[in-house]
Design goal:
- The protein is an alpha+beta fold.
- It folds into 2 domains: about 170 residues, no CATH class; about 140 residues, no CATH class.
- The protein contains 6 helices and 18 strands.
- Strands 2, 5, 6, 7 and 8 form a 5-stranded mixed beta sheet that branches.
- It is globular.
Length: about 350
């Protein structure tokens, strides 16, 4: 039995705005739950603005200890549908068409959270990153678009005006003392997309190197990654290496990591090392690139590493959001070396 929904009037106030982009070409149906809309063609790279906003009428998260909140932020809660767990409801608007500063087409979504979350967001950068990732996941689930985790932070409170609206919300999400609360069924429906759960750890630490088949030569789109096991100490001493730009997104059951390598040639692939562990991705292209992403580190260490490596704006936030996704699937990982496109794509 589904939880009954009730109409809730919203008058959201602006929090902050981020911008991202679509990683793939696709089509978005701009309709709502109650009205059909026209299909909008979404080219790869279309700029997408996300307004994070607040409203007291959005259901608040359930009461929870700080440990429970931290587990949810780290993606460690085994089941966010469990009424005893901690989760964050979010109401996502249908996307609307707009223009960016250059007059180019864009899409805008509003993600509205309960107003009580505002104060922690202003004081806790990790919690703010957590809400951003929840918003991106929920938009992806609602639209079937894949969004880049390379985000920008325009100096605006919101892209366009935040208008009053009515949302239909499961009544069971409201706390028992709230006048809109109704008893929850056995499996309550929640408005936010549950964070992917981390798999149970194996008996020993898993470490994987994706290697070329000895009988095949690499091609621009070979589903393999070459090289012996990484000697990170050796390549760390090599100076003058660039830190390549990278991004990630959910791609069905996989995490897709795209690394931009415009100078990579086919001749360099046999000398290149790609090392994948459950929480680490390490790439070394001799003489050109070095990328080390360790999402098992603490938040401060991740931010410091991005700064020291000279990574571009938003790289630290992107790594923090990846940290809160799940472990890499080392055993099922594959890599595509797209030399003609100047990039490496890892599915894990």
């Amino acid at each position: 039995m589904a939880s009954p929904t009730i109409p809730v009037a919203l008058a959201p106030s602006a929090g902050f705005c981020i911008k991202t982009a679509s990683l793939d070409a696709g089509t978005y149906n701009a309709g709502s739950a109650t009205a059909a809309g026209r299909a909008i063609a979404v080219p790869r790279g279309l700029k997408i603005f996300v307004n994070v906003a607040w409203d007291k009428n959005v259901p608040p998260p359930p009461d929870g200890s700080e440990d429970a909140i931290q587990r949810a932020m780290d993606g460690q809660d085994p089941d966010n549908l469990n009424p005893e767990g901690w989760f964050v409801p979010v109401i996502v608007s249908p996307g609307r068409e707009d223009k960016d500063k250059a007059g180019k087409p864009s899409l805008v979504f509003d993600c509205v959270y309960n107003s009580t979350l505002k104060s922690r967001t202003l004081k806790d950068a990790a919690f703010k990153t957590f809400l951003i990732e929840l918003a991106l996941q929920r938009i992806e689930a609602q639209t079937n678009l894949h969004l880049s985790r390379t985000i920008g932070t325009p100096n605006i409170a919101s892209k366009g005006a935040l208008t009053k609206r009515t949302a239909h919300v499961p009544a069971a999400l409201f706390p028992p003392a709230h006048p809109l609360h109704q008893s929850a069924p056995a499996k309550p429906l929640i408005e936010e997309l549950p964070a992917p759960t981390a798999p149970s750890p194996p008996p020993g630490p898993k470490k994987g190197i994706l290697k070329n088949s000895a009988s095949s030569s690499p091609s621009p789109s070979a589903l393999a990654s070459p090289g012996p096991e990484a000697d990170r100490g050796a390549d760390a001493e090599e100076t003058g290496l660039e830190t390549p730009a990278w991004s990630w997104a959910h791609d069905g059951p996989s995490l897709r990591i795209t690394v931009q390598l415009p100078k990579l040639t086919r001749a360099l692939i046999p000398q290149t090392t790609l090392d994948l562990e459950p929480r680490v991705l390490h790439l070394h292209v001799p003489g050109l690139y070095r990328l080390h992403v360790d999402v098992g580190a603490g938040d401060a260490a991740i931010q410091r590493a991005a700064f020291v490596a000279g990574a571009g704006p938003g790289a630290a936030d992107m790594a923090l959001m990846l940290k809160r996704a799940r472990d890499f699937d080392v055993e099922g990982a594959r890599a595509e070396w797209r030399v003609a496109e100047g990039r490496l794509v890892v599915y894990a």
